[in-house]
Amino acid sequence: MVLDLGIGFVNGIVRVNxxxxxxxxxxxxxxxxxxxxxxxxYTLGKWLVRVRLVSADGSAPTLRALAVRAGVFYGTxxxxxxxxxxxxxxxxxxxxxxxxxxxxxxxxxxxxxxxxIANIRSRSFFHDRVSGVVNSPVQAVSRT
Length: 144
What we know:
The chain has helices at residues 20-38, 44-48, 63-90, 95-118, 126-131, and strands at residues 2-3, 14-15, 51-55, 133-137. The chain is mainly alpha-helical. One of its GO terms (cellular component) is membrane.
């Protein structure tokens, strides 16, 4: 078992004979798809900050919508960063390939950050718009 500390989100995952993609996908599916589906839109973090995921009509999100949301977000981030990290590792001898991959890697991640900053007020990010699932504040319960 080797802990790879290279560039990219994917490389922070413990590699167990190349099964890291399966372990990552299972973890994402359990925490970001199945848990919110079973708890009507909550994960531990969302519960702590009093926010939950809802469909556009305010109802609990469907399993399909949660899967699309997680797939688009993590598929984009892990997919692109994973491909670039692999390309950099395979072509580590070529400075031109390394610089090209690093620049593209930086551009893609910069575009993600810009998307988040540009949409902070609306709180509707690219994966939310594609899936139709959004974060909604939870009303505090009055204890009178």
